[in-house]
Amino acid sequence: MLTFAAASAVLVMIPGPDQALITRNALAAGRTAGLLTMLGGLLGLSVHVAAATLGISAVLLASATAFTVLKIVGAVYLVWMGIATLRSARQTLREDPDTATRDPAERGGRHLRNGFLSNALNPKVALFFVTFLPQFLPSRGSVLPKALLLSLVFAVIYVLWFSLYVLTVDHLGKWLRRPRVRARIEQVTGVLLIGFAVRLAFQSP
């Protein structure tokens, strides 16, 4: 269990699409937006857990066509988010530093959807639950209780890490939300999202 928890923590902490989107939304609309994005990612994880439990992920990864469709959809979504973030950076640079505020147009449902789609459309997460998780399951007897327990451990680590991350971003928010600083972060985030999309598009099952 400790080995699984340690490995899961490393995987969660590695920068990826979830972290990029959480950073973007936390900077643009504050702590609640970041936490809602994280919650969306958690819901995405539940999809992968359910799919792996039912064997859907295994079928998906065994089918080159299905895997290709999923990764293309995920890559297109990340490119779209990356372009939207780069456009937001250009708009941020035009803001008056004395009047710049958190974006009121961003609402909870959008943040939740961003996090959910980012995670649910990521075949790398499916790959984790199909290839990495089974290594910690018993070879005999019922594996479902242990699989659910390990999935819960992964989810708890995910929540703890990104909650701390969002709180840190929010704590540094006054400085990070300065138009010029925020614009630079959005530019880097946009490029990273597009980079993740390219890497995802060329990933093999």
Describe the structure.
The protein has one domain. The chain is built from ten helices and no strands. Helix content is 80%, strand content 0%. It is mostly helical and 205 residues long. Helix 3 runs antiparallel to helix 8. It starts with a helix and ends with a helix. The longest helix is centred in the middle third of the chain and has 30 residues.
Which keywords apply here?
mainly alpha, 205 residues, 0% strand
Can you describe this structure in just a few lines?
This protein has helices at about 1-15, 15-30, 30-55, 55-60, 65-95, 110-120, 125-130, 145-170, 175, 180-200. The protein is globular. With about 200 residues, it is mainly alpha-helical.
Unreliable stretches, pLDDT < 50, 5 or more residues? 97-106
Quaternary state reads single chain
Q: Can you summarize the main beta sheet?
A: none
Contiguous helical run count = 10
N to C succession of SSEs: HHHHHHHHHH
The strand count comes to 0
On the 0 to 100 scale, the average pLDDT is 79
| Straight-line N-to-C gap | 27 Å
Strand content: under 5%
Helical percentage: over 70%
Radius of gyration: 18 Å
Write down the domain tally: 1
Structural class comes to mainly alpha
What form results from the Cα inertia axes?
Answer: globular
